[in-house]
Amino acid sequence: MTEKPGNPDACGHWLEDPAHRAFLVRDAHRALDFFDASPRAAGGFHTLDNAGRPLPSALQELHTTTRLVHSYALAQIAGRDDRAGIVDRGMDYLWHAHRDRRFGGYVWSLDGEGVADGTKLAYGHVFVLLAAASAKLAGHPDADRLLADISEVLDRRFWDDSAGLFRDEFTRDWQPFSTYRGMNANMHGAEALLAAHEATGEGEYLSRARRILDFFIAGQAALHGWRIPEHYDADWRPDHGYCGNPMFRPAGTTPGHSFEMARLHLQCWDQSQRPGAEAPAQARALVETALADAWDCDRGGLAYTLHLDGSVDIGTRFWWPVTEAIGALAALIKLDGQAADEAWYRRMWQFADRCLIDHEAGGWFPEAGAEDRHASGQFTGKPDIYHALQADLFPLVRGLSRPARALADLSPLADPQPG
After folding, report:
1. For the domain that residue 370 is a member of, what is the CATH number?
2. Of 13, 63, 257, 265, which residue is the catalytic one?
3. Which one of 153, 181, 192, 364 counts the least CB within 10 Å of its CB?
4. Contact 48/38 with Cβ under 8 angstroms?
5. Radius of gyration of the chain (CA)
6. Would residue 257 show up in a list of annotated catalytic residues for this protein?
7. Phi and psi (nearest 5°) for 165?
8. Residue 413 lies in a domain
9. 245-283 confidence digits (pLDDT tens)
10. Residue 6 lies in a domain
């Protein structure tokens, strides 16, 4: 029988409802149990099918390695032992396999024969920074060397100080091969910089995160009806006609990213001692616009991409925009929760419970398809734990920033799974 994500009759906020909090802890434990099967004997990690069996591909992409390290480090901080040794294995694989000892930096993908794609992408490199910061917060002995190395690479190769943003891509030997600039790598860059500031206290990380968020929110979203253009040219002007990789660089604007940016904006504002009064209203505008544009009123769930006027382009209902809406709504509720925030928060979890969470095997299906059954269009199996685990853990803590330290104080995963 499907377990319910909270008590529908609970007064106040589900964030304080014991039944909902127990549901979050259960879901996190079951996802971690599922992804414990990820380690590959020869090094690196398997991608898992829906039953938790390894898929046959030997391809190992940088964002997969780093997100597993980050996720299991967070879980370890929250009190759950890393029984599969994923943080240790991932840190070793990042240093000895992904790290390019010839040219520096970190290669995008590996297979059983070595480097499959040596391209140097900001998107992958900022996740190395996130993994290093989370590993440091978890007390991993190799975190400092990884943090120092990736910080130097990002600073020397990717950071455009005149713009206050990360450049996107180079060949393996650091030759520029495009003038593309993107929001996605910078958004995750802000996420990683905030984690690095939490781990080290170094102000430059926080300053750079603030510059990135200011550009895309006050500088772009405010000029585009609180929708954020995804793609830019070499001079950081929006490129509205760009269409690239359908997973990482789809055309138009992506409402799931609006939710992520709203949460990160509030995190950065809080971590910066709440300067000014604009951030809460800006974050709310991003969230409310994305909800109004993307929610599927007939079936539930959120459209993947939109045109710049807010009309739906790709209506596929992936899991990750729902998890990011949960995180953003939880942040708004903690700050100055309104009745609509609570209603939307519950609606997201009810949809996830009905259509996305695998109550038998654990983890989340990546897509809700016809008749709300899971579908396998863009993805095969369950691609990662990262988005869903954060949706479970971040609502459990009281504050808006420094989530790792808050999870360490709370230790919600330390006890056996409830109920």
Report:
1. 1.50.10.10
2. 257
3. 153
4. yes
5. 20
6. yes
7. -150, 165
8. no
9. 877 789 999 999 999 999 999 999 999 999 999 999 999
10. no
